[in-house]
Design goal:
22 helices, alpha+beta, Butyryl-CoA Dehydrogenase, subunit A, domain 2, 9% strand, 13 strands, 52% helix, six-stranded mixed β-sheet, three-stranded antiparallel β-sheet, Butyryl-CoA Dehydrogenase, subunit A, domain 3, disordered C terminus, 702 residues, Acyl-coenzyme A oxidase
C-alpha cells in the first residue's frame, strides 16, 4: 500500500466535468454523425464490442505502464502480444478486428513487424509454393518474422545495402553473408529476441553478376528451442529514445546457406542449376510493400495528431489561468480565471492541429484506396498508377509524419508543466511516434522520389504542349492538371480583396496548385537550363515535395467533405447534414488558410498572392478560429472517438476530472510505497542528523 494517500480535499469550482459538459452543449453539429462519417458504423460498433474485452484482459492493463523500466516494458509487451494472438484465435477475429484491438491497446510490441512488414511482403512477393511454405504458417504464428532491410551503414539508400546472397549452383542454395561491419542488419523490429524468421534484403549475386537488393525469407532461430542457427548472430541493439517495447535487433551472417525456395520469386527469380536470372516485368513491382507501409503511415500520423490534440484541447478547456482584462472580472465575489482555450495563442497552437488531423484522415483514406487499386491493376499488367502512387506515398509519408511529430510536441508544450508529466500521456506518445520520421525513408531524402516524378511529369507535359497535338481533355491526372493550369497562365493573380474571400475552396486550390507548379518549373529550369547539380537543389526539391503534398491534402479535405472523393469499389459515400458539413468546412478552411499563413514565402514568390492578401489571410485565420472552431473544439476532438482506455491520460479523459486523475496516478508512483526513502540512512541522514546517526549506531551496538 502506498504511503502517499489521495487527499480528502474538495475540487475547485467550476469542476472540469461541468466545464466539458458545457463545451459539448455548445457544439453546433452531431458528434456521432461526424464520427460515423470518419469511421463508419461498422468501426464504431466494433470498437464498442471489443473495448470491454480488451479492458478486462490482465495482459492489456495500462495502470502500471508509466512506471515500468525497459526490461519490464518489453516483458509486458511480449505478454501482451501473446494474449492478443490468443484472443484473435479464440474469437476468430478478422484482420480488421485484430488491428482495431491492437490500436486500442496502443503499444508497440515484438510481434508488430511480423504483421506490419513480414507478412505483407510475403503476401505480395511470394509464389504460390512460397505462400504455402511461409505465409500460411506465419498467419497461424507458427513462424514469427521480421523485415531485415536496414543496415548499420545504409538506411534510406536501399540500393546501397551490402549484405550478399550468392547463388551456389552445386547445392541449389543461396549463401547469405555479411562482408563488412556496415553490412550488419540494424534497427530490425522483432529481430532482437522474438523472431525466428526474417525477410532479408540482400544483394543477389548469381553467375558472378550483382543484381541488386532482393528479398529472401530465411529461418534465423531454431524452431525447437529458439536458439540462433549456425551461421547467424543476432541480438537487441539496446535502449532507444522511444519504442522500447519493441526488440529492435542487429544481425550478421557468416556464409549462411538457405534453400533455393528462400528467394521470393513472384516477380524475379533464379533458375535452379544454371543460375540464370529472370528479371521482373517492371523494376518497381517490389515497391508494393513499401507503398503500403508509407500509405499506412499517413493514417498513423492522423492517429498520433488526433490523440495528442484530444488530450491538449480537453485539458485547455478546463485549465484556467489569469484573468482576461477584456473579459468580465468576477462572478459575484469570485474571480473568474480565463480558460486557456479562450486565449488566441492557444487556439493558434491547437486548432490547426485539429484541422490537420482531419486532413490526414481524408488523405490516408485516399492513399489506401489508390494502393489497393494499383495492386489490383498490376495483377493484370497495368502499371499506369504505380509511379504516381509511389511518388505521392513518399512525399506524404515525409510531410505527414513531420507534421505529426511537431504537432505532438506542440500539444505537450501547450499543456504547460503537466504536459511534461508522463501521466499526461503525451511524452510517451511523442517518444513512440518520432521514429516514424526516420523509418521507411528519412523524411528529407525520401522527397527526392517525389521530386523526380514531378519533374518528369512536367517535362513530358511541356513536350506534349509544344508538339501541337495536345488537348487539355487528355489530362486525367491531378498532378498534370495543376501543372497545365499553371502553364496556361504562369502569371495568374489571386482575385481576393477581402478576408472572407479566402474561404472560397476554389481559390485555396488555385493558390496551392500555382505555388506547387511554380516551384516545379523553377527547379526544372535550374536543372535543365542553368545546369545546377542535383545536390545543390535538394532543399528546393524537399520544398516542392511539401508543396505538392499539401495540395493533395487540401484537395482531399475539400472533396471528402463534399462527398466527391472516389470510393473503393462497392462503397457509397456518406452524406453529411448541413450542420456537420459546415463545421468540417470550417476546419478545411482553417487547414488551407493556416498552411499558407504559416509559410507565405513560396505563395508570394510564385506571384499568386501579394503581401496585402497575406495580411487579409491572417484576419481570416483568426476569425475562423475564434468564431467557428472555438465553439466546436471539444466536439471536433470527441468525434475522433478515442476511449479513455486508449488515451491513458490523466489530463485528457472524457469526464474532465484532470486534477483528480493526476493526483491518483501520483499516489501509485513506486517511490511513494514507503514514507522514508530507501538510502536515507546512508546518504541523507549523515548530513541532516549526524548526532542522531551516532546515537543510532551506539544503540545498535548495545
Amino acid at each position: 500500500m502506498s504511503a502517499l494517500r489521495f487527499p480528502n480535499l474538495p475540487p475547485s469550482e467550476p469542476q472540469g466535468s461541468d466545464l466539458l459538459a458545457q463545451e459539448r452543449a455548445n457544439t453546433t453539429f452531431s458528434i456521432h454523425e461526424v464520427s460515423t462519417f470518419l469511421y463508419g458504423e461498422v468501426y464504431l460498433e466494433r470498437q464498442e464490442r471489443l473495448l470491454p474485452m480488451i479492458e478486462n484482459e490482465p495482459a492489456f492493463d495500462k495502470s502500471n505502464r508509466y512506471f515500468r523500466g525497459r526490461t519490464e516494458r518489453f516483458a509486458a509487451a511480449l505478454r501482451k502480444d501473446h494474449a492478443l494472438v490468443k484472443l484473435s484465435k479464440e474469437f476468430k477475429w478478422s484482420p480488421d478486428e485484430y488491428l482495431h484491438a491492437e490500436s486500442l491497446i496502443d503499444e508497440a510490441g515484438p510481434f508488430g513487424l511480423h504483421r506490419g512488414m513480414f507478412m505483407p511482403t510475403l503476401a505480395s512477393q511470394s509464389t504460390d509454393e512460397q505462400l504455402e511454405r511461409f505465409l500460411r504458417p506465419a498467419q497461424r504464428y507458427e513462424i514469427i518474422g521480421c523485415y531485415a532491410q536496414t543496415e548499420l551503414g545504409h538506411g534510406s539508400n536501399v540500393q546501397g545495402i551490402e549484405t550478399t546472397a550468392t547463388y551456389i549452383p552445386e547445392t541449389n542454395q543461396f549463401e547469405l553473408h555479411t562482408p563488412y561491419l556496415t553490412a550488419s542488419k540494424w534497427w530490425i523490429g522483432g529481430l532482437g529476441k522474438a523472431a525466428n524468421h526474417a525477410v532479408v534484403m540482400a544483394r543477389l549475386i548469381t553467375n558472378g553478376k550483382d543484381y541488386g537488393p532482393h528479398a529472401l525469407c530465411v529461418p534465423i532461430r531454431s524452431m525447437e528451442d529458439h536458439t540462433l542457427l549456425p551461421g547467424v548472430m543476432a541480438g537487441d541493439i539496446g535502449p532507444k529514445f522511444g519504442y522500447n517495447t519493441t526488440d529492435n535487433g542487429c544481425m550478421w551472417f557468416d556464409h549462411y546457406r538457405v534453400p533455393h525456395i528462400s528467394l521470393l520469386a513472384k516477380y524475379s527469380s533464379v533458375k535452379p542449376g544454371s543460375g540464370e536470372y529472370v528479371k521482373p516485368p517492371n523494376a518497381k513491382l517490389s515497391y508494393g510493400t513499401m507503398v503500403l507501409v508509407r500509405a499506412s503511415l499517413v493514417g498513423a500520423a492522423r492517429h498520433g495528431m488526433a490523440k495528442a490534440v484530444t488530450i491538449a484541447t480537453r485539458y485547455s478547456a478546463i485549465r484556467r489561468q489569469f484573468v482576461d482584462k477584456d473579459a468580465p472580472k468576477s462572478l459575484g465575489k469570485q474571480i473568474v480565471e480565463t480558460p486557456v482555450l479562450d486565449y488566441s495563442t492557444q487556439q493558434y497552437r491547437l486548432f490547426p492541429i485539429i484541422a490537420a488531423a482531419y486532413a490526414c484522415f481524408f488523405t490516408s483514406k485516399e492513399m489506401m484506396r489508390l494502393y489497393h487499386l494499383n495492386m489490383k491493376n498490376m495483377e493484370t499488367g497495368d502499371f499506369s498508377l504505380l509511379a504516381d502512387v509511389h511518388a505521392s506515398s513518399s512525399g506524404l509519408k515525409s510531410l505527414t509524419t513531420t507534421m505529426a511529430a511537431s504537432a505532438i510536441e506542440e500539444c505537450r508544450r501547450a499543456c504547460g508543466g503537466h504536459g511534461f508529466s508522463v501521466f499526461s500521456g503525451l511524452p510517451l506518445l511523442l517518444q513512440d511516434y518520432v521514429p516514424n520520421v526516420t523509418w521507411e525513408g528519412d523524411n528529407y531524402m525520401i522527397t527526392q522520389q517525389t521530386g523526380r516524378y514531378l519533374f518528369k511529369s512536367f517535362r513530358e507535359l511541356v513536350a506534349k504542349r509544344t508538339s501541337g497535338k495536345f488537348s487539355a481533355n487528355q489530362i486525367n491526372n491531378p498532378t498534370l492538371a495543376y501543372m497545365n493550369t499553371y502553364l496556361e497562365n504562369p502569371t495568374l493573380k489571386c482575385p481576393a480583396t477581402s478576408a472572407s474571400q479566402f474561404h472560397n475552396p476554389e481559390l485555396q486550390l488555385a493558390a496551392f496548385g500555382h505555388r506547387a507548379a511554380s516551384l516545379v518549373a523553377q527547379i526544372v529550369h535550374a536543372l535543365d537550363v542553368k545546369k545546377r547539380t542535383w545536390n545543390s537543389m535538394l532543399v528546393d526539391i524537399y520544398n516542392v515535395s511539401v508543396a505538392h503534398c499539401q495540395l493533395i491534402m487540401v484537395q482531399n479535405f475539400i472533396l471528402g467533405i463534399r462527398g466527391e472523393m472516389p470510393q473503393p469499389e462497392g462503397v457509397q459515400p456518406t452524406v453529411l447534414s448541413a450542420a456537420s458539413k459546415e463545421a468540417l468546412t470550417d476546419l478545411s478552411d482553417l487547414f488551407a488558410m493556416h498552411t499558407i499563413h504559416k509559410q507565405p514565402g513560396e505563395f508570394l514568390t510564385s506571384g499568386y498572392l501579394d503581401a496585402k492578401q497575406i495580411s487579409l489571410l491572417g484576419e481570416a485565420v483568426m476569425n475562423v478560429m475564434e468564431k467557428k472552431v472555438r465553439p466546436n473544439a471539444i466536439g471536433f476532438v470527441d468525434a475522433f472517438a478515442f476511449p479513455d482506455y486508449l488515451l491513458n491520460s490523466a489530463i485528457g479523459a472524457f469526464d474532465g476530472r484532470a486534477y483528480e486523475r493526476y493526483t491518483e496516478m501520483a499516489t501509485r508512483e513506486p517511490l511513494n510505497k514507503t514514507e522514508v526513502v530507501e538510502g536515507y540512512e546512508q546518504y541523507i541522514r549523515p548530513y541532516t542528523n549526524p548526532r542522531g546517526l551516532k546515537g543510532h549506531l551506539l544503540q545498535a551496538r548495545i
